[in-house]
Amino acid sequence: MHNWFECKISYDKVTEDGFSKKVTEPYLVDALSFTEAEARIIEKMRPYISGEFIVNDIKRAHFYETFLNDTGDIYYRIKINLITLDEKTGAEKKTSATILVQASSIHDAISSVDNMMKSTMNDYVISSVAETALIDVFPFEVVVRIPKDENDAAE
Q1: Cα 35–chain centre separation
Q2: Which end of the chain has fewer beta carbons closer than 10 Å to its terminal beta carbon, N or C?
Q3: pTM
Q4: Is the predicted pLDDT of residue 103 greater than 80, yes or no?
Q5: Are 29 and 141 in contact (CB under 8 A)?
Q6: Which positions ≥6 away from 31 have C-beta within 8 Å?
Q7: Rg for the chain (alpha carbons), in Å?
Q8: Which strands sit side by side in the sheet containing 4-14, from one edge to the other?
Q9: Helix, strand, coil shares of the chain as percentages rounded to 5?
Q10: Do residues 96 and 85 make contact, with C-beta atoms less than 8 angstroms apart?
């Protein structure tokens, strides 16, 4: 299960016309705590930003699920209502869930949610779709290093 944090980074960005402009950009990081989120975003951004940058803000981001697709370049926040039936009263109950989808268009994002929900038994309604300002998402990756030979294993 992911524990997402939205981190805002401020730095001086060189524009296409050669001028320096102060920008603040949001990124999403998977981490266990605010402290780890700050450390991870600094580690991830250091190779891409020349000069100094600061982490302006960190806040929890609540996503029920994330669908990351490398072919997409836009992140969409999609809110769905899962519809269940209360067995005692027979009334419909709606439970909302927010999903983050990376896609190339709004239609691709909706299609991704529809394809994912086909494999479930849940009835659902998409109640809103919004493009986010997120620049990139950094899920937690477990790296397993397999030694190539016995010399690597000794290190």
Answers
A1: 18
A2: N
A3: 0.82
A4: yes
A5: no
A6: 3, 5, 37, 39, 40, 140
A7: 20
A8: 53-61, 4-14, 20-30, 136-138
A9: 20, 45, 35
A10: no
